[in-house]
Amino acid sequence: MPSVIPQWSLLGCGALGGVVASLLTISGQSTRVLLRDHHQSTLHPGTDFTSLEGQVQLLNIERGFVSKPGKIKRLLVMTKASQVIAALTPLAGKLDAAVPIVLLHNGMGIAEQVVEMFPHNPVIAGVTSHGAMRCGHFVFRHTGKGETWLGPINEAAKAHAALADELALALGQAGWDEHVLARQWQKLAINCAINPLTALYKLKNGELAGPRFADVLQQICVEVADVMCAEGIATTAEELQRRAMTVVELTADNYSSMYQDMELGRETEIEAITGFLLSKAAKHGIAVPVNQGLYQAIKEKSQAV
């Protein structure tokens, strides 16, 4: 194990994790990717990264394993929402209490569980709209530039706003928001609108812009806005729909992560996205029939794969 502690340790190397690890490395920030132990027996080549501009680079990014992670300065968790707790479990009781844990996944409801597992660590939530694709074994393509925001989940995290500046060196933009919960909800609303529809109907994101989906997108946003307002997050259905359609246009040629998961027979993030919305709606006694129907359809289709 090298004596130098990497600036970033990344847990999870899916599409977005691979792209972020590559961008951090290119920006000159030392990065280690922590893999699951079953990867120990396989040969790990360099990371093949294609930038937004189409430039291809072979990067030498350090690999480690969760069972022997080495010294960690700050931990960036890039797994899918459903895998976060299982991925962090080997580090419970071993991670130094001063190490900030940054969560960068779709959906909500996970950060609170992480705080329970690591009560003394700074826990930071992040949202990002960067597009990423995994094209093969350690082959990644950056498919869209977006915004990234970090914010504190617990009191200890408030001392780590500078992490956003360091991420900005790699991602082009990253900001710190003490009220990141509102941004998480806005991202959740966009995911509720785009992900289930594209997965069910096997569409590129841009195909949601047509008149066929105008009514259902409006209904989804009305329901999400009702729940957000009940949760104390001021918004309107019109604002949420405008945000969702902006993302649809910016990522027109992309396939959503839920579409890709369904096509490959992988577990989707429906529980942390629409499932989280349904749990909050039930808490407030708010009917969300369109989102409920999409949730059921994804669950049934996932079981049939």
TrEMBL record:
An example Gene Ontology CC term for this record: cytoplasm
Pathway(s) served: Cofactor biosynthesis; (R)-pantothenate biosynthesis; (R)-pantoate from 3-methyl-2-oxobutanoate: step 2/2
Domain Ketopantoate reductase C-terminal residue range list: 181-301
Reactions listed under catalytic activity: (R)-pantoate + NADP(+) = 2-dehydropantoate + NADPH + H(+)
EC nos: 1.1.1.169
Membrane-crossing segments per the record: 6-26
GO molecular function, one term: 2-dehydropantoate 2-reductase activity
Domain Ketopantoate reductase N-terminal residue range list: 10-154
InterPro entries, alphabetized: 6-PGluconate_DH-like_C_sf (IPR008927), 6PGD_dom2 (IPR013328), ApbA (IPR003710), Ketopantoate_reductase (IPR050838), KPA_reductase (IPR013752), KPR_N (IPR013332), NAD(P)-bd_dom_sf (IPR036291)
SUPFAM superfamilies: 6-phosphogluconate dehydrogenase C-terminal domain-like, NAD(P)-binding Rossmann-fold domains
UniProtKB keywords: Membrane, NADP, Oxidoreductase, Pantothenate biosynthesis, Transmembrane, Transmembrane helix
Gene Ontology BP annotations: pantothenate biosynthetic process
PANTHER family named among the record's database cross-references: 2-DEHYDROPANTOATE 2-REDUCTASE (PTHR43765:SF2), 2-DEHYDROPANTOATE 2-REDUCTASE-RELATED (PTHR43765)
Protein name as it appears in the record: 2-dehydropantoate 2-reductase
Organism in which the protein naturally occurs: Aeromonas sobria
